Amino acid sequence: MSEPFIKLSGVRKTYKTRGQEFLAVSEVTFDVNIGELISIVGPSGCGKTTVLKILAGIHSHEEGTVSIGNDTNPFDPTKDIGMVFQQPLLLKWRRILENVLLPAEILGLPLKESRERAQYLLKMVGLEGFEKKFPDELSGGMQQRTAIARALIHDPKLILMDEPFGALDALTREKMNLELLRIWKESQKTILFVTHGIQEAVFLGNRVIVLTSGPARMADNIAIDLPYPRLLEIKTHESFGSYTRHIYKHLDME
Amino acid sequence: MNDISKTARRYAWIVLVHLMVVVLWQFGVTFSGIPDYVMPTPEATVLSLGEDYGWVHNTFITAAEVFGGYCLAVIVGVSLALIFNWFKIIETLAMPLMISLNMIPKVALGPLFIVWFSYGVDSNILIAFSICFLPILLTMERGLKEVDPDLIDLVRILKASRWQIFMKIQLPGSLPYLFSGMKVAVVLAVAGAIVGEFIASEEGLGYLMLQVQVTLDTAAMFMAVLLITLIGVILYGLVLLLEYLIVGQNSKETSV
Question: Which of B148, B155, B172 is the closest to A106 by Cβ?
Fold first, then answer.
């Protein structure tokens, strides 16, 4: 067994606001192997986003160690992270294809190949034929698909998703969950998926990290032993129910 | 096809309503017996162009003041907004001052400008400039700031340079704001130039209005107001055209 791709050990971070210390996360310890899809679930204020931002290198941390990359999969913090937020954050003056190309432009990747890859990715996320549209002409779900294609354009090893479907309606969200599993399988990326939806976390992840608030700490790390490809039917499966019940117990229903 | 006929019908209504006002005005004045020096007919207003008032020269002077003051305001407003955005320390120091300046009714500065720069086209350009540059500065400054912090995070991960962030995100994002400020500034620039001419000048449409007021040639005053309005409309049209060329399709979202 090779070294894990990501190793977090005893990570702790506090924020200071008006002289008061505020604990964002603590006791965060988990490993991620290459190609895993890990859900991170918890209530608001539990530090889910903070963990992602520490991994992305945008936030620092005071205690613990974070390492990404191993011998077989070296990691470049500039080129190997694709990020998707709750809002699509598309540039509304750029067409869909040009929006997907933004990271490639910033990294200075060859334009011709990037355009071809963008076409391919738009096809993969189900947006073939929308390359020339402006973001305003697309639905919320389609905008978020564009954001996913943009996160993949520079072929990063790690995709960080911060409640990417939180702003979508329930039906679109379920559809996007299925899409994400398909994209994950097709792109073979390592994905960390932050959500406050317990069902969503269990449905997507091969493992679920549970964070609790007050005090903010990591409460559990559960392997979800449900076979892929997963279809919506598994939500009625008995073991799916026992996983969600187990997580509910961690979060103030304890 | 349907869209085109809809648009055509909308414009037809606009033209029709204006024509109706002109017709009502013509007949209302004729039949009510209001004297010409109180309310001239549209006909008399147009005929006043035949008088030897130097219409072309005066219109040209006022237009030069409006356009001069306006262009200066755009150049200075945008430059200051960029400087403020690039050098936070300057912004911290100067922004409160700018907001206080914005509170001053610039029209009240007119007499001072005359004292400082004497009267004439140059000082009227300055008055037009001073009255319309702050909306441009303030909207542009705001537009440059309106960037989602998550988006900044997204490009910071990619180690985007400050210049890349500015060119690819901040600047294009600020343009709709800038154009909304520029539209407000059109009307202000016209007002500034006319106020300057009212206070002290020897040419321009505002000057002409004061001259013909003495002889109660109200029709000529009406004509002067129409020409002043026309200058503003042309400038506004140019700004809309520029917006369409630069911001393009996206402008439908933000235009008033």
Answer: B155
DSSP class per residue in A98-122:
HHHHHHHHHHT--HHHHHHHHHHHH
Distance (Å) from the alpha carbon of B52 to chain A's nearest alpha carbon:
51
Cβ–Cβ contact A232 with B under 8 A: no
Rounded (5°) CA angle A6-A179-A87? 75
Report strand pairing: A158-162 vs A190-195.
parallel
Instruction: List the strands of the sheet with A20-32, edge to edge.
Output: A20-32, A6-17, A63-68
Nearest to A106 among B160, B249, B250 (CB): B160
Query: SS3 for B154?
Result: helix
The Cα–Cα gap between A174 and A238 comes to 19
Q: In chain B, whose CA is at the least distance from the CA of A91?
A: B169
Nearest to A78 among B158, B168, B175 (CB): B158
Contact A134 B169 (CB under 8 A): no
A194 contacts chain B (CB < 8 A)? no
Give me the tens of pLDDT residue by residue for chain B, a chain 256 residues long: 577 888 899 999 999 999 999 999 999 998 988 888 889 999 999 999 998 899 999 999 999 999 999 999 999 999 999 999 999 999 999 989 988 988 888 888 888 888 898 888 999 999 999 999 999 999 999 999 988 888 999 999 999 999 999 999 999 999 999 999 999 999 999 999 999 999 988 999 999 999 999 999 999 999 999 999 999 999 999 999 999 998 875 544 443 3
ipTM: 0.84
Question: Testing the interface with B: which of A76, A92, A99, A159 to mutate, by most B Cβ within 10 A?
Answer: A92
Domains delineated in chain B = 50-254 (1.10.3720.10)
A1-78+204-254 to CATH, choices 3.90.550, 1.10.10, 3.40.50, 3.10.620 = 3.40.50
